[in-house]
Amino acid sequence: MTGQVWLFYLLTVAQFALSALFTPARSAVVAMVVERRELVTANALDSFTWSTMLALGALLGGIVAAVFGAETAFVLDALTFCFPRGLLVGLF
To answer: What does pTM read for this prediction?
Structure first.
């Protein structure tokens, strides 16, 4: 496993690079979907939801890693990226 640390760094850089594109796009979509008078509330809800999911994800990830091991936590994390993809496929 230690021989693959380079892959961890590579994937981390890729995730942050893509996040630099996704986050502004998500914010722009919120502004396009809601009316101007609701924009402050929508942004607050968006930030609250993101922060809550970050905290809950870290909590659950820590519990899974402690109980089942780091490898299981990584596999479950990878699978969580498939769930939204399935939801998006249903939209089109």
So the answer is: 0.64
Q: Which domain holds residue 50?
A: 36-92
Q: Which amino acid is at 16?
A: F
The backbone torsions φ and ψ at residue 2, rounded to the nearest 5 degrees and listed phi first, read -70, -20
Q: Rounded distance, CA 1 to CA 12, Å?
A: 16
Predicted confidence at residue 3, as pLDDT, reads: 79
Q: What is the DSSP letter of 81?
A: T
Sign of CA dihedral 41, 46, 51, 56: positive
pLDDT at 1: 58
| Judgement on whether residues 52 and 78 belong to the same structural domain of the protein | yes
HSE at residue 72, side-chain half, CA atoms within 13 A, is 10
